[in-house]
Amino acid sequence: GFETLPWACRFTEWGRKATVLGTKGSILAAVTPPAKTPKAFAALQGLLGVFPNVAQSPTNLGISLRNPGAVIHPGVMYGRWCSEKWDGKPVAEKPLFYQGVEDFSESVLLGLTNEVQAVKKKMEAMIPGLDLKDAVDLKQWYM
């Protein structure tokens, strides 16, 4: 599994065409079973080319908990469309995803990322040797 997609993309024609806006410099990946890691990584890097560099994560769980999309997408959507922020009336034009993110949405995002970190800490405490070092919070992921 990957922590995120190797490219930043946007649909240009829904379900038919997308534009690649950029290639990420590096991404984390994990392989199950771990014994297959060297062969899988060689194949993945060969398919992707030089960039992004595919770096090894010890567990799929760690990179799944790290995935920023699992926090950002529902957090931003809730921050925009929850009953506290939206009156239920149609909007004049399609809003851009990140425009309009404000203090309320920030508090939702912080709450979600903090919840993921609490789950990570509890799992590490319950399961000796579980390595979830790659499950970082949003600020660490973006910085």
What does this structure look like?
InterPro entries: 6-PGluconate_DH-like_C_sf, 6PGD_dom2, Opine/Lysopine_DH. The protein has 143 residues and is of the alpha+beta class. The protein has two domains: 1-56, no CATH class; 65-143, Orthogonal Bundle (N-(1-d-carboxylethyl)-l-norvaline Dehydrogenase, domain 2), CATH 1.10.1040. 43% of the residues lie in helices and 15% in strands. The chain is built from five helices and four strands; from the N terminus they run βββαβαααα. The chain has helices at residues 37-48, 60-66, 69-81, 103-126, 138-142, and strands at 7-13, 17-23, 26-29, 53-56. Strands 1-2 form a two-stranded antiparallel sheet. The chain has a two-stranded parallel ribbon with strand order 3-4. Helix 1 (37-48) links the parallel strand 3 (26-29) and strand 4 (53-56). Helix 3 packs antiparallel against helix 4 (103-126). The longest helix has 24 residues, at 103-126. It is flat, with a radius of gyration of 18 Å. It starts with 6 loop residues before the first strand and ends with a helix.
